[in-house]
Design a protein that fits this description.
- By secondary structure, the protein is an alpha+beta fold.
- It has 15 helices and 29 strands.
- It has 3 domains: 258 residues, Bira Bifunctional Protein, Domain 2 (BirA Bifunctional Protein, domain 2, 2-Layer Sandwich); 122 residues, Rossmann fold, CATH 3.40.50; 71 residues, Translation Initiation Factor IF3.
- It is 35% helix and 28% strand.
- Strands 5-11-12-18-15-14-13-26-29-25-24 form an 11-stranded mixed β-sheet, sandwiched between helices. A 5-stranded mixed β-sheet has the order 20-19-21-22-23, sandwiched between helices.
- A hairpin with a 6-residue loop joins strand 27 and strand 28.
- Helix 3 crosses helix 7.
């Protein structure tokens, strides 16, 4: 099949495309162009989204070389390519935090059990998720088989492995704050946390995960509330403008808010399977933790007052959102602002002499693009054929692929393929350095617009409970519906449908209506969805 045909790079791309459509072929197909042999592995690399969305996600995380399950139950290994995406997220967010006046610090991994007991609602919220250290030493087993816990090394006070850091940080703030002149304190830390999960999924829900957590202290409630809302806006800005994922900003219901908070604000995103994913939270803590840890300051009038607090965080769960919001059945689709590699250049050659000529030109193009701040990979590996490289970089979501062969050098052109639409175009070689940045901007914008259209197409207003249940089962997505504001109704809807109130949208207009469940009066719609 397709043997003994003369193929140049445009032909190779075309036949690669044709072959990829044959999902049932389970063999190796060889395309020959004189002495070139291009090996294309047939068969589905990942499960189709339409067949099994959950398995598609797992396949993609592994095939794109992002992460793998650890031998430690519930934990994951983030592989270099996946971690490089997380690093780009960190870099962008860290700059945004510092631009708003925050500085980084680090607090202990271990928290005395008594600290958690000081704030009742906080400990209730995390009690079932805590990992506990009870001993501080091992010893050789008497029977010679390995090691055992030394029973003589029991800790006087058990330690909790950090599920979140409010308690240990507010214990420090008690030492740092005496006067209004010590406020505000605006601190962020990048760290890992442990929450004992029974059912895990790579990036979305693991026993240990990476995140940042901001913790701030203020002299007034208004200042703390302003901080809470500011950081919510920072998160929304990052997720929309870097991740290219549209979000809805809102306030959590009483039943869904953070343990120990007065108010919790969040951003909610919609994944391609119609489920919601909470992409970030920002909490107004009021004076709850200041009371628990006796954190007071002397105000300008010389009177003692309790400090007002906030906390806010995002985690490696954003990696899951990035994957599920954009990617397709052929692999990752990464927005250029977070892509570890912006442009991959694949040479098409017959001889070492041709490769040397292509390499000389690629060096010039790559150097110019790198000066503009773009990451360029020249994939000149000699143990893989072009077709394999095309498929690999498509799987890994590289935004732009350039193919250059001998005929391209003669014509002064290259063939450019974009990952988001899979469109290809012939571009003048001299125009690459000026046109590729424009193309990357276009890809970033297109990815966002596609996600926004999907979100808007799957955002519905519903006014009856029967219609609500039908919509959840038949066409999942965001639902705006009236709710009577009670915990009882919220719990009943969750129990019967598995849908939760994702948030009360901040831009929700006042609108008289009736709760879909109880029929009681309601003055605005809230956002419902089944969620991760």
């Amino acid at each position: 099949m397709f043997s003994n045909v003369n193929l140049y790079n445009s032909d190779i791309l075309f036949y690669s495309f044709l072959l990829k459509q044959n999902a049932t072929a389970k063999r190796l197909v060889y395309l020959q162009s004189d002495s070139i042999r291009i090996t294309l592995k047939m068969g589905k690399e990942i499960t189709n989204r339409s067949e099994d969305y959950s398995q598609w996600y797992i396949d993609l995380v592994k095939k794109a070389d992002l992460a793998e399950n650890s031998d430690v139950r519930g934990c994951m290994v983030i592989k270099p390519y996946g971690f490089s995406i997380w690093e780009k997220m960190q870099t962008a967010l860290d700059k945004m935090f510092k631009d708003t006046g925050h500085t980084n610090a680090y607090f202990p991994l271990f928290i005395p059990k008594s600290f958690l007991a000081k704030e009742a609602s906080h400990v209730d919220g995390f009690a079932k998720e805590c990992a506990i250290v009870t001993h501080y030493r091992l010893k050789n087993s008497p029977d010679g088989n390995g090691v055992i816990v030394d029973p003589e090394a029991k800790l006087e006070e058990e330690l909790i492995v950090r599920p979140t850091s409010e308690t240990v940080i507010w214990n420090s703030y008690k030492k740092w704050i005496q006067s209004y002149r010590d406020l505000p304190i605006l601190i962020n830390q990048w760290c890992n946390v442990v929450r004992w999960e029974m059912r895990t999924r790579l990036f979305l829900r693991t026993a240990e995960f990476l995140w940042q957590e901001g913790h701030t202290a203020h002299s007034t409630a208004d200042e703390a509330i302003k901080e809470t809302r500011q950081m919510l806006d920072v998160y929304a800005d990052f997720v929309e403008n870097f991740m290219a994922v549209p979000v809805i900003k809102g306030k959590k219901s009483e039943g869904e808010k953070f343990p120990g908070a007065i108010d919790t604000y969040c951003i909610e995103a919609l994944m391609q399977d119609g489920k919601a994913l909470q992409a970030g939270t920002s909490h107004f803590l009021g004076q709850n933790f200041a009371k628990a840890f006796d954190v007071q300051f002397t105000n300008k009038e010389g009177k003692l007052e309790l400090v007002w607090g906030t906390s806010w965080g995002v985690s490696t769960r954003l990696m899951g959102a990035l994957i599920m919001a954009h990617s397709d059945d052929d692999g990752l689709i990464l927005p250029p602002k977070l892509a570890p590699i912006h442009v991959v250049i694949v040479p098409i050659f017959k001889t070492d002499e041709e490769l040397n000529k292509i390499s000389a030109k690629v060096d010039v193009i790559s150097a110019s693009l790198r000066k503009l701040g773009y990451s360029v990979k020249f994939d000149n590996r000699d143990n893989y054929k072009p077709g394999f490289k095309f498929a690999e970089h498509e799987m890994r979501g590289v935004p732009v692929r350039i193919a250059i062969g001998p005929r391209d050098l003669e014509n002064g052109t290259v063939e450019v393929a974009r990952r988001d639409t899979k469109e290809k175009q012939v571009m003048k070689m001299d125009d690459v350095v000026t046109e590729i940045p424009k193309l990357l901007d276009a890809i970033q914008g297109n990815i966002y617009q596609k996600a926004l259209k999907f979100r808007n197409d799957n955002l519905r207003k519903i006014d009856s409970y029967d219609e609500f249940k039908k919509a959840l089962d038949e066409t999942p997505g965001f639902i705006l519906a009236h709710w009577d504001g009670t915990k009882e109704t919220e719990a009943a809807i969750k129990e019967e449908t598995k849908a939760t109130i994702r948030c009360i949208p901040l831009d929700a207009p006042e609108e008289n209506g009736k709760c879909i469940y109880s029929g009681k009066p309601s003055n605005r719609r809230v956002l419902f969805a089944r969620a991760y």
